[in-house]
């Protein structure tokens, strides 16, 4: 419990500094005696006073088990003689420690990070207070370290501001000391296509909210003419162009270079190809354009479940508000625990009183007990940077007010997308596992499947299982070739959306919902098995009457979408708001699912959410 003792000593020291006199018992003094009521009261009072320090300590992710395994006295030389973050910025002699810090941040951020020159990295309550000259020195130190051969990164100043403080310098003779603070983007320059950072953003919202129009403006450049000019290039079918409504899952990409500039977006006269965008980008945003009409809800839910988005962009028309399927999409995103940010569109054509009513409605919904989100209305560059840094906590919901015709607010959206952090929960060291979202038959290539790698990695030529088929069997095949963002690669890793060309597999034998699994190692026991029935803990979100055994509904588990029947309940019936253990059975064919996967089932207005607990082969 070494780290906990250090934590108690830290609280004791902070309390002694701020409140001379009665002090908190230290960890060493508290052993062997019972804590008095006075000590408990002092500790409770100090806990509120030091909330910022405690939050900063929580972010350090102290591992007691590791300390116990290594021994209490096992301390690295870097920790024994470690300079502060401020000293490493302003003193050239500490450049080696600064390099170690940046390497760790780049590793956690998959090739990029945002460094704040306002407070310490480990303790947010400690302000750096850099003067004008020290700020210039710190920025130069970052550029010098990042230009080294081992890092080779680009340093871009996102935001800077100067301020004066008299309170901190009241004891000094001089007054009005000028300080400067800023936010710095550090991004790797040499990035291979196979290692390119990808962030998947699902675009949802009610019909006619302007989803496809905004994506056309962001990916192609230029502005819309108010009649749907920007969205035409995104549609895949003739009836979509005629009606202006998306009915399928569309994919578009948006690239950023090492300096954070958009790649391929010009005045809208010509749309850059995926090859041009990928070759010149260091970070790619993949937009999953989903349908907003109610009759395409199955397609939208499939895109949210099977596409495995990192974030959800909810589009709300300023003139309509949260109506129709927007609430349904918000509920699904909340059920899947995907971070959400909102774009209020069409503000150029909306009266001020209607816009204010929409804003009030959004704030009320987000603060409700069902959402528990903190709405943050973005109006400056500093707010964009701060929101992107704390967005993954899932408590903040940034809200942008934009117009695809006038361009108002679009720069804030572009900057926010550029700074979105990677937070995927994937296992790169596990066995290879890949969910098929779509399948094609390409001339002179053969059968091609696309989707997202859930676990592990795969190389060209590796043997894999594909299945299950109608009989629940898996076919052993191999990877002919791999493409990522329409570019050939030799290897693909967990968390990446890729396409595989399979050997000796016919197109009619492959469907959505199948999986690719690691090939056989000569042991028959390691062969995958299909699942016909499974046990899940479910929560009924909405249902008009009661649910009993033999009830049927459309069930979504990852990329699997199939009708299921309730075989058994742990009680006679369940209603809205009930939580129960339910045994499901696939009606048509067996599927490949695992314990721990999230389950979403629907039938008409009925909605239910659950987690797979046990599977039966």
Uncertain stretches: 21-80, 167-174
Give the strand tally.
26
Strand content: 25-35%
CATH superfamily of the largest domain: P-loop containing nucleotide triphosphate hydrolases
Structural class: alpha+beta
Q: Treating each run of at least 4 consecutive H or I residues as one helix, how many helices?
A: 16
Shape: globular
Number of domains: 5
Give structural attributes.
617 residues; alpha+beta; Translation Initiation Factor IF3; Rossmann fold; 5 domains; 8-stranded mixed β-sheet; 6-stranded antiparallel β-barrel; 16 helices; 26 strands; globular
Explain what you see:
The structure is a single chain. This protein is of the alpha+beta class and about 625 residues long. The protein has five domains: about 1-75, no CATH class; about 80-190, 2-Layer Sandwich (Translation Initiation Factor IF3); about 195-420, Rossmann fold; about 435-525, Translation factors (Elongation Factor Tu (Ef-tu), domain 3, Beta Barrel); about 535-615, Beta Barrel (Elongation Factor Tu (Ef-tu), domain 3), CATH 2.40.30.10. It is built from 16 helices and 26 strands. The strands form five sheets. An eight-stranded mixed β-sheet has the order 6-5-7-4-8-9-11-10, with helices on both faces. It has a six-stranded antiparallel barrel with strand order 12-13-19-16-15-20. Strand 12 (about 435-440) and strand 13 form a beta hairpin. Helix 15 runs parallel beside helix 16. It is globular and about 75 Å long. The relative contact order is 0.07. Residues about 20-80 and about 165-175 have low confidence and may be disordered.
